[in-house]
Amino acid sequence: MDLLAAIAPGNSVEFRVPPFAAAQVVEGVRHRRGNPPATVECDPRTFIELATGVLDWDSATEAGRLIASGERSDLSAVFPILVMPLA
């Protein structure tokens, strides 16, 4: 999550991977309390698959493995965030 926050810094989208982590990302309207204006949520496996490029954003969304709502919640341009070198 720290890498995601470094790549897409800001406070307008809350990216949640319960129960492990949540990060505020993407420039825009600052979220202070209550429900943020935009949220993204997925399970840990989906996050790892997105981060490594095993799964793409559209496929995760269509399969219901990723829920994104609100302005700026489409982070498809940010992923994958971690590229594994081939051995």
Give me a quick take on this structure.
By secondary structure, this protein is α+β, with helices and mostly antiparallel strands. The chain contains three helices and four strands, in the order H-E-E-E-H-H-E. The radius of gyration is 12 Å and the shape is globular.
Query: Might you state the CATH topology name?
Result: Nonspecific Lipid-transfer Protein, Chain A
Number of helices, where a helix is a run of at least 4 consecutive DSSP H or I residues: 3
Low-pLDDT parts are none
Average of pLDDT:
91
Tally the beta strands: 4
The top-level CATH class is: Alpha Beta
Structural class category: alpha+beta
Largest sheet, described in full? 4 strands, mixed
How many domains is the backbone divided into? 1
CA gyration radius, whole angstroms? 12 Å
- Following the backbone from N to C, one meets helices and strands in this order, namely HEEEHHE
Strand content: 15-25%
Query: Based on the structure given, which CATH architecture is correct?
Result: 2-Layer Sandwich
How far apart are the first and last residues' alpha carbons, in Å? 25 Å
Spatial shape: globular
Q: Give the spatial strand order of the biggest sheet.
A: 2-1-3-4
| Helix-residue proportion | 10-25%
